[in-house]
Amino acid sequence: MYWLVALMSVAILGLIAGGIALEWRPSLSRRIRPWFKSAMGSQLLVFVAAQVALLALGVHDAMAETGASAAGTAEMTVGMGLAMIGVGIPTGLSTIGAGIAVGPIGAASLAAITEKPENLGRTLIYLGLAEGIAIYGLVISILLLNKL
């Protein structure tokens, strides 16, 4: 399984190195353009294939549960670690969604307030509704954490 992780790491580092090289020296893109698309495409293909292989071959190890230790407390397994990561995903995604929602709403509310200051309360309600998305994600994460 370690060779899959190494393969994915090499593919990611290749993508990052290619992006940095093209950012620092954009003139390189004219010289490497004939093979650039195929190289980046092959790195992405290797990364996706390694992800699928890691899931297919590593799902048994991830879900394997060891018995309780001598003291009576359960050890932290890979499956439990993945479950803990999964508990945090709703909060992270909902926070990203709230940030995407608050940006345009905040800009529009600022423009509306400069034209009509009496609309302040209404615009604050809209901002609060957008921020509520993050709170919903946090509540879901807390509910999932209680199930573990």
Taking the alpha carbons of the first and last residues, their distance comes to 27 Å
- Uncertain stretches: none
Category from helices, strands and their pairing: mainly alpha
Estimate percent helicity: over 70%
Number of strands: 0
Oligomer: single chain
Order of secondary-structure elements: HHHH
CATH class category label of the largest domain: Mainly Alpha
- Count of helix runs: 4
Structurally, how many domains make up the residues? 2
Written overview of the protein:
The protein is mostly helical and 148 residues long. It has two domains: 2-63, no CATH class; 78-147, F1FO ATP Synthase (Up-down Bundle). The chain is built from four helices and no strands. The longest helix has 38 residues, at 78-115. The two termini are 27 Å apart.
